[in-house]
Amino acid sequence: MEFAEPLHLQSGSSISHYSLTIETYGTLNAERSNAVLVCHALNASHHVAGHYADDPQNLGWWDNMVGPGKPLDTNRFFVIGVNNLGSCFGSTGPMSLDPLTGRPYGARFPVVTVEDWVNAQARVADAFGIDRFAAVMGGSLGGMQALAWSILYPERVGHCIIVASTPKLSAQNIAFNEVARSAILSDPDFHGGDYYAHNIKPRRGLRVARMIGHITYLSDDDMASKFGRALRRAEGALDAYNFNFEVEFEVESYLRYQGDKFADFFDANTYLLITRALDYFDPAKAYDGNLTAALAGTSAQYLVISFGTDWRFAPARSREIVKALLDHKRAVTYGEIDAPHGHDAFLLDDPRYHNLVRAYYERIAEEVGA
């Protein structure tokens, strides 16, 4: 979708003549009452579910959640996935050409926030003639967007589904993001964000950034069960010297594989931009840190889900959201799932988790006649 009208950003800047890449699933009913917006996390995109005929290996990032007969059933709901402004999967972002210079924006792309993304998504809804979403749903950073939707557009959200998320990042989380950004910024191939002109990308920095992030997405128990201290060489076959620090443990091999894969498809400037948006999100800041006050104008019904071993966005953070909503007597369903997979649990198959989401959408379907 192309948008000519300037989008005014929280930073005071604006961007015009931008495009957003979207993907839809299911059929919008005549009343336009069965629409669900699915918001993506850091390294995901508009490609929420299914695969393309010419690329069957490219499976949607939430394919186990969204589709015919799945918890978010596309036989009943019309689902929209939007690639956020500033991302690198088709929407206008740092890789796009700046109309003022004719060169890629690079590090000159304006700072964007979660609230900016929500305002851009609202224009997508307008283009479809959707006045009110049956639900807005997201996990992790996507959950922040869902929460922001319920604050910024309370009259346009029937249900808000927040999974493995938080009302703001802790200092530790911001610190992890900063270490990851530093890895990119210190890569000699970064060239101040203008690496496109050099026909190169800061792969080493991206690899390290992804490795750092991936560690935080898994629980200690999950890593232990997957890898333990398994070696890739024969036990006892120590090298007298290992100047290159080659891979010896299975967990090292796994992290390097994840880092290499990420560096192949993701953009470094986008990583810097999106992690900053994560850091900045704090709807309570304008209310002296009072989340209850920040949520006073909400009117949606909520489903909030956390995972016991998620130490990146711990259950205590989800409970903060629940308490603030209950202070206003909002209708809230809260599920805390004792899954072993850490933060990544929101992307994985867990019958308790999926059955909870399925039951909740059954209730929404009855309300909207889907």
From TrEMBL:
One of its GO terms (molecular function) is homoserine O-succinyltransferase activity. The active site is at 140 (nucleophile), 310, 343. Residues 34-348 form the AB hydrolase-1 domain. SUPFAM superfamilies: alpha/beta-Hydrolases. Keywords: Acyltransferase, Amino-acid biosynthesis, Cytoplasm, Methionine biosynthesis, Transferase. GO terms for biological process: homoserine metabolic process; methionine biosynthetic process. The record marks 312 as: Important for acyl-CoA specificity. It holds the Pfam family Abhydrolase_1. It catalyses: L-homoserine + succinyl-CoA = O-succinyl-L-homoserine + CoA. Pathway: Amino-acid biosynthesis; L-methionine biosynthesis via de novo pathway; O-succinyl-L-homoserine from L-homoserine: step 1/1. HAMAP family: MetX_acyltransf. Belongs to the AB hydrolase superfamily. MetX family. Transfers a succinyl group from succinyl-CoA to L-homoserine, forming succinyl-L-homoserine. Homodimer. This is Homoserine O-succinyltransferase. The gene is metXS.
